[in-house]
Amino acid sequence: GAGVSQSPRYKVAKRGQDVALRCDPISGHVSLFWYQQALGQGPEFLTYFQNEAQLDKSGLPSDRFFAERPEGSVSTLKIQRTQQEDSAVYLCASSLGQQAQPQHFGDGTRLSIL
Amino acid sequence: RKEVEQDPGPFNVPEGATVAFNCTYSNSASQSFFWYRQDCRKEPKLLMSVYSSGNEDGRFTAQLNRASQYISLLIRDSKLSDSATYLCVVILSNFGNEKLTFGTGTRLTIIP
Prior knowledge:
The structure holds two protein chains of two kinds.
Chain A: E1 5-7, E2 10-13, E3 19-24, E4 31-37, E5 44-50, E6 53-56, E7 65-68, E8 75-79, E9 88-95, E10 104-105, E11 109-113
Parallel strand pairs in A: 2-11
Antiparallel strand pairs in A: 1-3, 3-8, 4-5, 4-9, 5-6, 7-8, 9-10, 9-11
Chain B: E1 4-6, E2 11-14, E3 19-25, E4 32-38, E5 45-49, E6 55-57, E7 60-65, E8 70-75, E9 84-91, E10 100-102, E11 106-111
Parallel strand pairs in B: 2-11
Antiparallel strand pairs in B: 1-3, 3-8, 4-5, 4-9, 6-7, 7-8, 9-10, 9-11
């Protein structure tokens, strides 16, 4: 489809494993955002890309979290040495990057750390 | 203190009733304001933008009070399909990084 695509839809990992979450934004969208949504909470900002440049990573909770968007399109969020508190839904959103353009969200990846 | 605060509910409201949600934000420099809707296990979707002059979209009316840093959403003649979590959202800057700051969300259930 033409929307934001995220994979996998669900991921279960053991504590200490590394995981990689993928986001395929809408074609032509310059801005890409990652958010983390814990159960019963609103999404919280993790990081922002404008094309391939990561301009804001102030929301990443620790240095175990790393995101990239090397060609300005697909983005990957990697979590190293996962902890139970990393269990959440990880949402990706993209937008045209112009003022006041709406962000379009993917379905999210539901991550469970055992 | 969270940047965007909402009553988490739940609000259980009979079909056809009018329901109102409120939200406050802490940063007076916030530029843009929205209500998003999120269904269970789904992604957030933009419901409507919020302006100081107030805006209406069918049964939904949103209002912004910049002086009080307060945002509201009114739903009239509620339908079963309105059951969802309603997220209050602000953007600090309109230039470049328009990261969304979400409230906790208010859960609404419409009862037949």
